[in-house]
Specification:
α1 packs across α3 (about 45-90). This protein has helices at about 10-20, 25-40, 45-90, 105-125. It is built from four helices and no strands. The protein is mostly helical and about 140 residues long.
């Protein structure tokens, strides 16, 4: 593991995503909307009163899009790295699937079709594809140091 400290944006986006996903945050958002609605008669349902909620929600939504995308990008990279490690670690695995996420759409669809064809062949041969277990245990590759 690296000893480097995560960037401010990474730390901030992780913390914000964590807080935004909690039930209490949802309850606070609903309470803010109820408070805004209740104050409508006080402000005579004025244009300024409406502008407050419209501007607030637009700004929050705009910023959250970037934070969510950053979080999804990190998660996606982490999952791909873990899958690549599993593929690499298993002797029986097809190494052509390492870094498959870097292929273009056409290549991905071609690989998907090949896998679907293999599943159909297995099914036609009487193999229950929902209950596949290797005849022998899968051997891990030797560790490279």
């Amino acid at each position: 593991m690296s000893d480097s400290k995560p960037s401010f944006f990474t730390t901030f986006s992780k913390a914000t995503a964590s807080v935004a996903g909690k039930p209490v945050t949802f309850i606070l958002a609903v309470a803010a909307i109820i408070l805004w609605a209740v104050t409508g008669p006080v402000f005579g349902f004025s244009d300024t009163w409406q502008l407050v909620i419209n501007t607030s929600t637009t700004i929050i939504t705009f910023l959250m899009v970037f934070l969510i995308q950053n979080t999804q990008n990190r998660d996606s990279i982490a999952v791909q790295l873990k899958l690549d490690e599993l593929i690499y670690a298993l002797k029986e695995a097809d190494n052509r699937f390492l870094n498959v996420e870097d292929l273009d759409e056409k290549e991905l669809e071609a690989r998907q079709q090949k896998m679907m064809d293999l599943a159909e062949k297995a099914k036609a041969a009487g193999v229950d594809v929902d209950d596949i277990s290797p005849a022998k245990p899968v051997k891990p590759r030797k560790k490279i140091k």
